[in-house]
């Protein structure tokens, strides 16, 4: 309903930002990670928003990037996850860490979010895994990895194996995913050989 709010950050407290948009103060609920990246009071801020409408409330949830907003929208499609639950998860996990946790079935990491139990976390990994992979494949396609270069299944498998190997070596899952994406963007043929992809990604980590 409201795509974004763009104005002056008037006030910021735990989970809530007040943005002055042409003299009107707009309440926007935000995640902990979004709060950490917000500009100072009195500075301009743009928040991409999700509008939650109920009979007795009209609530905005805001994010500094469309990427985080899209993940939030995915999360709240899962039965048992409302907007507050989605914010809770994104408060303790970066978008890349959440994507990797879902793809690898790491429900334990997701369940660390306040209010998110083990069964709910498992439901998230089960219901969103395919959606996340489809989203990742779309990103790879946008990076000029065409079907003539390598099948999408092959690219997904090589990517997942390379990221898992980097994590096993002790690297952060978010950094690992970024490194593999960067390699695939610059060298699509690397998706045909997991070992080659891993070696190139390792170079990106240094």
Present the secondary structure layout.
Blueprint: E1 4-13, E2 16-21, E3 24-30, H1 32-37, E4 44-54, E5 57-63, H2 66-75, H3 83-92, H4 95-104, H5 107-110, H6 118-142, H7 152-168, H8 173-186, H9 194-205
Parallel strand pairs: 3-5
Antiparallel strand pairs: 1-2, 1-4, 2-3, 4-5
Kindly report how far apart the N and C termini lie.
44 Å
Number of domains: 3
Helical residue percent band? 40-55%
Number of strands: 5
**Name given to the CATH architecture of the largest domain:** Orthogonal Bundle
Which structural class best describes the helix and strand composition? Answer: alpha+beta
Keywords:
single chain; DNA polymerase, domain 1; 9 helices; 206 residues; 5 strands; five-stranded mixed barrel; alpha+beta; OB fold (Dihydrolipoamide Acetyltransferase, E2P)
């Amino acid at each position: 309903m409201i795509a974004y709010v763009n104005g002056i950050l008037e006030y910021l407290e735990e989970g809530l930002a007040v943005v002055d948009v042409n003299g009107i103060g707009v309440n926007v609920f935000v995640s902990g990670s979004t709060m950490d990246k917000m500009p100072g009071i009195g500075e301009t801020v743009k928040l991409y928003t999700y509008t939650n409408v109920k009979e007795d409330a009209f609530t905005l949830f805001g994010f500094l990037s469309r990427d985080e907003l899209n993940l939030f929208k995915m999360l709240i499609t899962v039965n048992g996850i409302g907007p507050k639950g989605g914010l809770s998860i994104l408060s303790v996990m970066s978008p890349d860490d959440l994507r990797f946790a879902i793809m690898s079935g790491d429900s334990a990491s997701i369940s660390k979010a306040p209010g998110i139990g083990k069964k709910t976390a498992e439901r998230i990994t089960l219901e969103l895994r395919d959606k996340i992979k489809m989203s990742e494949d779309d990103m790879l396609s946008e990076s000029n990895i065409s079907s003539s270069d390598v099948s999408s299944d092959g690219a997904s498998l090589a990517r997942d194996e390379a990221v898992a190997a980097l994590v096993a070596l002790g690297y952060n899952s978010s950094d690992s995913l970024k490194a593999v994406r960067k390699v695939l963007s610059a060298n699509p043929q690397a998706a045909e050989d997991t070992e080659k992809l891993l070696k190139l990604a390792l170079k990106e980590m240094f």
